Amino acid sequence: MLPEWMIDVPDRLPQDWYVFARPAGKRCFVVSSNGITVSRLRNGSVLHRFPSALPGGSRTRDVSGSAQSYSIMDCIFHELDQTYYVIDMLCWRGYSLYDCTAEFRFFWSNSKLVESGACDPPSQNHRYRFSPVPVYNCDENGLHAAYTGAVTYIKDGLLFYNKQAHYQTGNTPLALVWKDEKCSQYVIDTDSKGNVPRLQQVVLELQDDLKLITSDDPPVVFGYLDNDLVQKYGLRTGNLLKFAISDGGLSFADGRLDRADLQYLGQSNRARAFADSYSKVVFQYAVRHSPLRIDDLLSAISSRDDQENEHRDVEMVD
C-alpha cells in the first residue's frame, strides 16, 4: 500500500487519522512460513532470508499449524540498528487482516509482535529484531509527539493513516506521507549524485498516443511528447522518461493541473519500476515554492477541534 503525498490537509484530521514517524530505510514485505522468514523489496528481490520468532519463521521454534502458520508484514528495514520496523500487518498465523481497519491492524500488530518474542534481541534462531512504530491519534499532542518525540530510528517524514482504511495495494488517499527539514534528511529529491538539482525532476510514462502520464489509477496526463523526439531517441510505449520542470513551472485551474512546462532529460534509470505519482510531483513542487508546514497542520487541527466543539455546543442548546 503506497501513501499519497499530503498536498492538502484532509478533513477531520484529529478525529479520523493516526500519525507516526516513518523510519528511514528499505520498504519491504516480510513473510514467515515453513520455518523460514524472507523479506522482499518493492521490486520483488530478496533482501534477507533468515530465521525469526514470527509464526512459522524458524525451524527450531514453535511452528505449530505447519503450512497455515504464516505471517505477512509491511516493514521498513533500518540499516543502522539492523531492525525491521513494522508499519502494518497483513496476516498473522494465517489470519488475514487485509479487510480489517487500520485501527484494528495497529492494535493487533502491537500486541501479537510482543507476545511472539519477535521484539526480543537477536539470537541464533532470531536473526533480526522486529519493532512496531509508536502510533498516535492525530490530535495536537499526537502530531507533536510524532514530529518531535525521540525514537530509536532515523526519521524520514510522517505517515498518516485513516483509522477506517483497509489495506489495499497501490496508491491510496487513505494513507499520506509528509515531511520537512526537521523530520527528514531528504525533503527535496536529489539527483543520482545526491545533489539537489536547480530544476525539479519528474519521471513520467510514455503512452502509445504520446501522452506522458503518472503512476496513478487513473493516471494524470502531464503533456504530450513530440513525435520527432520519439523517433530521434527510439522511445517506446511504456518507457519511463525523466523531465525537468522548467521555469514556467506548473499551473493549476480549479485545483487540477492545467499546464506543465517540461524539459526532456532522457530515459529514467532502468532500476526504476514506476513513474512518479501526481501527489509526489505536486508535493515536491510545493516544497520548492510554498510548502505545507507543520504549523499549517497544527492550525488545521486546532481550528477543526474548535469547529467540533462549537457543533456540540449547538446540539446541546437544541
Description:
The structure is a single chain. The chain is of the alpha+beta class and 318 residues long. The chain has three domains: 2-21 and 135-178; 25-132, D-amino Acid Aminotransferase, Chain A, domain 1, CATH 3.30.470; 201-289, no CATH class. The chain is 22% helix and 35% strand. The chain has six helices and 17 strands. It has helices at residues 13-16, 102-116, 140-148, 227-233, 278-289, 294-317; strands at residues 2-5, 17-23, 26-33, 36-41, 46-50, 71-78, 83-92, 95-96, 129-132, 136-137, 155-162, 171-178, 201-206, 211-213, 221-224, 240-253, 256-267. The strands form three sheets. Strands 3, 4, 5, 6, 7, 8 and 9 form a seven-stranded mixed β-sheet that branches. β13 (201-206) and β14 (211-213) form a beta hairpin.
Task: Give a quick rundown of the structure.
The protein is of the alpha+beta class and 318 residues long.
Helix content: 10-25%
The secondary-structure class comes to alpha+beta
Our count of domains comes out at 3
CATH superfamily of the largest domain: DNA ligase/mRNA capping enzyme
**N-to-C terminal Cα separation, in Å?**
44 Å
Instruction: Find the count of extended strands (DSSP E, 2+ residues).
Output: 17
Unreliably modeled segments? none
Order of helices and strands: EHEEEEEEEHEEHEEEEEHEEHH
Count of alpha and pi helical runs: 6
The dominant shape is globular
Indicate the radius of gyration in whole angstroms. Answer: 22 Å
Please report the first level of CATH classification, the CATH class of the largest domain.
Alpha Beta
Major sheet details? 7 strands, mixed
Mean pLDDT: 91
- The CATH topology of the largest domain, please? D-amino Acid Aminotransferase, Chain A, domain 1
Annotated CATH architecture of the largest domain? 2-Layer Sandwich
Strand content: 25-35%
